[in-house]
Amino acid sequence: MSAIHRSIVKTADAPQAIGPYSQAIKTDTLVFVSGQIALDPATGSMVDSDIRAETRQAMTNLAAVLTAAGSSIENVVKATLFIRDMDDFAMINEVYGEFFPSDPPARACVEVSRLPKDARVEVECIALLKR
Fold first, then answer.
1. Catalytic residue among 109, 115, 128, 129
2. 109 carries an active-site annotation
3. CATH of the domain at 16
4. Tell me, what's the pLDDT at 131?
């Protein structure tokens, strides 16, 4: 029986971890991407003009980590959204749908009381590695 390999994924194209965690962990077949918020990787500042822009930046960060891991947004099998206000659900969903125009992954969406950096949306995922 062969051992499963585990490696840390790190890219400058997405915000650096703001705590004791990795941007993602890659195994032989899967990548587990940590929660991404709307931090601009170039400035380290939050994109907070509106909920759509915040969602778009979080999703762009997620896609950058997936690319660095050798995967892509098309290979996501499970996503989880954490949102601060369920009243923003429709606008968040609209932007989220732009990233998954067909055959979207399984997903959960949970309203939470607070997120890091007072973000309004955070997204994490599990994806297949490209073969």
1. 109
2. yes
3. 3.30.1330.40
4. 64
